[in-house]
3-methyladenine DNA glycosylase (Psychromicrobium lacuslunae), 310 residues
Amino acid sequence: MSSQLSALSPQQWLPRAEAHHELVDQYAEPYLKRRSAGKPHPVEDFLFTYYTLKPGQLRRWHPGSHTVLLGEEAIERLNWRHYRSANQAEREGLGLTVTEPAVIVDLEAFLVDRESALRFTTDLLRRTVARPAQFGCFGLHEWAMVYRSASNGARHEYLDLRLGADGTDRVVEANRVRCSHFDAFRFYTPQAVPLNELQPSRETQRELEQPGCLHANMDLYKWSYKLLPLLSSELLMCTFELSWRVRRMDMQASPYELAGWGYPAIKIETAKGKAEYVAQQRAFSSEAAVLRSRLLNDLRQRLPKQSEQA
């Protein structure tokens, strides 16, 4: 593990923390207002309802490990999990006094609690990077989630199916269904499960995850927040904003009628719609590749030498 430290004065890190708060509020405040009013949004609530990081947790700014925060304003972080005061050796290396407030992520304590998660995530990302991207799914996972189901097929009871239940079923039956992502596959209706060419499971996730998958690319956000405060909030928000845009496209290609919500359909039941889907999927895959490499590099620097190969 790299042990090189850097320090940020309050004049350096407080504006970064404030900028982070403002960015998060752009997404979180509308969600919180909708939640209070009991008015769910099928697209824009997803990152707050499917993923487990709460808006208040997302709003906390983290510099990442190996960065020492200076100043009285940093002291409150000693009450945050996996933070501690800089020790004497760290202070001497940075030219700090013994009494100057200096707070850093407690990497050792984090590894005691979370090394297995760090090792799993690093291995998953490493394998995903090495695997060729696949672009032939056309978003049919969302269609398989309502295939031959009751209540007009809709998982979201306040939404209509664009082609109706029968039309949705015909699209599924007329196409090759090959989802590689377990956390999409697990929501298939029982009737759709045998139609999928793969049968992904949690146990085979590391063998099947591939970099063309929309949901695998959305999950870069999940892997980032699960390893806070090791990683910086700047990297976290890069993955969040990518996931936000991927979700929009994912639902545009879904069987739901979302034009009234401001999301015109990508009609994957047509050749033109399939081409549009693949073009956007490739663009997102390229963006995700950059973030996946950044994330993997950061994690490798924090991983005990023996762990990555475990």
User: Anything to note?
Assistant: The two ends are 15 Å apart (CA to CA).
